[in-house]
Design a protein that fits this description.
The structure is a single chain. The longest helix is centred in the C-terminal third of the chain and has 24 residues. This protein has a single domain, classed as Alpha-D-Glucose-1,6-Bisphosphate, Chain A, domain 4, CATH 3.30.530. The protein is of the alpha+beta class and 156 residues long. The chain is built from 3 helices and 7 strands; from the N terminus they run βααββββββα.
Amino acid sequence: MAEHTSSSITIEAAPADVMGVIADFARYPEWTGEVKEAEVLSTDAENRAERVRLVLDAGAIKDDHTLEYTWTGENQVSWTLVKSQMLRDLDGSYILAPVGGGTEVTYRLTVDVKIPMLGMIKRKAEKVIIDRALAGLKKRVESGAAGTGASSKPKD
């Protein structure tokens, strides 16, 4: 099994508010930094994104890829890579847990690129992506700009 990188952060908001921002893919370019475009390609029976196309610019990793999302209850979402130009694997998850008056968010990520890259450099890149995503998520949620997920409708 491939190694993964994970990190956690506490956000001063309810899990539903945090998941609202995570599920609102259309607004990712507003707060993630690395995601330049996001397009929901299909949704499940509960109108949650199943397949999402993302255009990513994370410095050394620039890619146009599609991810498949799996929603587990109200507090967990995971994804796997469907197709990519540069990546061999991109698997990750957000796991939310209520703590005090807020939510602990754990982000796990495994990235494997098609070009040769030292494991140490790959882990460093994963860590940077995770830390930036968690900081952006915290700032977005705590600013009151929580998403609804409703604007993440697939294209016809």
